[in-house]
Amino acid sequence: MPVPQRTALTLPDPRGVNETIELAKWAEAEGYDDLWFADSSGVDALTTAAAVALNTNRCRIGTAIIPVFSRTPAVLASTAHVLHQLSNGRFILGLGSSSQTMMENWHGLEFEKPLSRVKETTQLIKSMLKGEKSDFDGATVKSKGYRQLPLDDGAQPVYMAALRSKMLETAAEFSDGVILNLFPKDSLPRMMEHIKIGAERAGKKLEDVEIVCRHQVVVSDDKENARNFIRRGFAPYYATPVYNAFLAWSGYEDVAKEIAEGWAAKDRDRTTGALDDKLVDDIAILGSMGECHDRIREYGDMGITTHIISCVSPKDAQATYDAFTAKNFSF
Fold first, then answer.
1. Are 150 and 130 in contact, with CB atoms under 8 Å apart?
2. pLDDT digits (tens, 9 = 90+) for 122-133
3. Is the pLDDT assigned to residue 249 strictly greater than 90?
4. What is the pTM of this model?
5. Per-residue pLDDT at 233 exceeds 70
6. Distance, C-alpha 119 to centroid of its chain
7. Integer Cα distance of 130 and 128 in angstroms
8. CATH 3.20.20.30 fits 6-216+289-323, yes or no
9. Dihedral Cα 91, 121, 102, 89, nearest 10 deg
10. Total Cβ atoms within 10 A of residue 234
11. What is the pLDDT of residues 190-213, one digit of tens each?
12. Is 175 within 8 Å of 168 (Cβ atoms)?
């Protein structure tokens, strides 16, 4: 059965927990379908998701994403079980590898074999959620003798984030949904083709796979200012090895090289300047309310099913969120 189109709001609110809860309540009242947490510094996604679950009634609550390196599979499985109960089945556990910067610098962990780590963690968690006693000896994770209260098979979805070909195929094959992020528009058809390959390996059709994307949206008449917010916010992402390789894989080898060299030289202007206006406009969704609506609908036609609205410009955030309330937007 084809997956319906859904509109979601990104969380947490960077101002704090109480503000996040109020924003979630507002979004649900205004007709948003989902609330998806990013794993960011300062406001823990999983504990705050529990608070949001207790303060909302209808919206799905997801994570896009929780890094697999910073919590063990048993911790993630037990947390997902609790969030499933607290939300009355509205929670989606979205997992990913994150990046070297966050895992190695923030957490002091080794960032090794990310594809295997995400795949094995997903497999192990799905087994744990069914109440099966663990006996797993993978290349990156191990568990023996752990068991928790069971949920019905498939009751608690586990999604995987992916950027390039192997991870896209793995996510579609082994998880319940695929999470995308920060892709240039012209790379999406290639990404969808790999999702299709993975889905077919698991006996699924592409149209039956939920594909989630956190869109960077700024509803504003000042496109140049909006572009500068995107440059400042996301050029450093593309300097990390994971996203730099993704940008090169997407066909922007020269841009990826310029960003990497600019970052290594600690030249912020060179790093941000590598993202020209056209590329920024291809990565982000900027402009009037109507322009942003049209772009989201276009991505829906291209295969994305769940559209997380995120805005990095504080002064434009409320106008951006208002633009995608039920009274202002529909597919």
1. yes
2. 999 999 999 999
3. yes
4. 0.96
5. yes
6. 16
7. 5
8. yes
9. 0
10. 19
11. 999 999 999 999 999 999 999 999
12. no
- Kindly state the tokens that stand for 267: 């030249």
- Token readout for 206 is 């592409």
Rounded Cα distance between 46 and 35, Å, is 13
Cβ contact 220:226 at 8 Å: yes
Cβ-count burial of 330 within 10 angstroms (0-12 exposed, 13-18 middle, 19+ buried)? exposed
Q: What number of other Cβ atoms are within 10 A of residue 285's Cβ?
A: 27
Where are the CATH 3.20.20.30 domain residues in the chain? 6-216+289-323
